Amino acid sequence: LARLRGRLARSGSPLGARLLQVLSRDHLTEDDWDELEETLLLADVGAGPSAELIEALRTRVRVEGVKDPAHVRTMLREQLLALVDPALDRELSTARTADGAPAVVLVVGVNGTGKTTTVGKLARVLVAEGRTVVLGAADTFRAAAADQLQTWGSRVGVHTVRSDRDGADPAAVAFDAVRQGRSEGVDVVLVDTAGRLQNKAGLMDELGKITRVITREAPLSEVLLVLDATTGQNGLNQARVFGEVAGVTGIVLTKLDGTAKGGIVVAVQRELGVPVKLVGLGEGPDDLAPFDPEAFVDGLLE
Ligand code: GDP
């Protein structure tokens, strides 16, 4: 986490730079408050949460008679932290069931957001913890997707269950992966899926079928929605659709190492009512970290 903190801080945030500018003024005018709110909006915090946060902050500043902008910054930090909601349970559930079935983690999201990479990184984390893992390549739409997953699997030293045919039934592959995981007594089965959003009904059918078929063998421990933090509002729309079709239990926010503005964390948690559990901080195998609200807010305010 120290590493995460360092890296988020180093990336510097556009929010932080502008906030610093506004909060270094002698006192805050009406325009300054507007600018603060606009800065939150530009950082993807979302219109509702931004307005509420500024309103609450202004009230506190007035009631407590705060004059010093540095103090305002401390209060802003507290307010942002409350929005990110440090009390949410962000633990991944990856425990085997009482009857010995593996924990099944279904990874969903639009193509290109970082699903396969996340599955690979997560497998590595689990293996490092001494857990046994099987991967399921249920993105059968493109053979390249299964190849990519298998490459991650061999790098990490875990088996990948896949189909040799393009366009094989993704639910059948997911089922095979879980059944194999169960018969071999592995701890966790990670299932990678396709995310073609052109057709919501099709996506719903596909994910619905995968879910039904998996749960014949083992209950789903987690449905992780992978969102690319650099896509801002678009990510929020994706969250909405997947939230409706997939029973999401946690969010993985990828590409926070890039130009991401990060405030999307607040917006997606609100939208789906589920916490951001993991963050992607690069393309490498070690670039996955648990989401740490404090480090995150400090990163925003750097
Ligand atoms: P999928 O189509 O959702 O499975 O996405 P991929 O896992 O293939 O990832 C798409 C691209 O995003 C690849 O080039 C990945 O290396 C890259 N990527 C994934 N996660 C991250 C991340 O956290 N940071 C950065 N910078 N790139 C990432």
UniProtKB/TrEMBL annotation:
Residues 275-288 form the SRP54-type proteins GTP-binding domain. It catalyses: GTP + H2O = GDP + phosphate + H(+). It is a peripheral membrane protein. Its EC number is 3.6.5.4. Keywords: Cell membrane, Cytoplasm, GTP-binding, Hydrolase, Membrane, Nucleotide-binding, Receptor, Transmembrane, Transmembrane helix. It is found in: Cell membrane; Cytoplasm. It comes from the Bacteria. Belongs to the GTP-binding SRP family. FtsY subfamily. Part of the signal recognition particle protein translocation system, which is composed of SRP and FtsY. This is Signal recognition particle receptor FtsY. It comes from Cellulomonas alba. The chain holds residues 112 to 413 of 414 of the full protein.
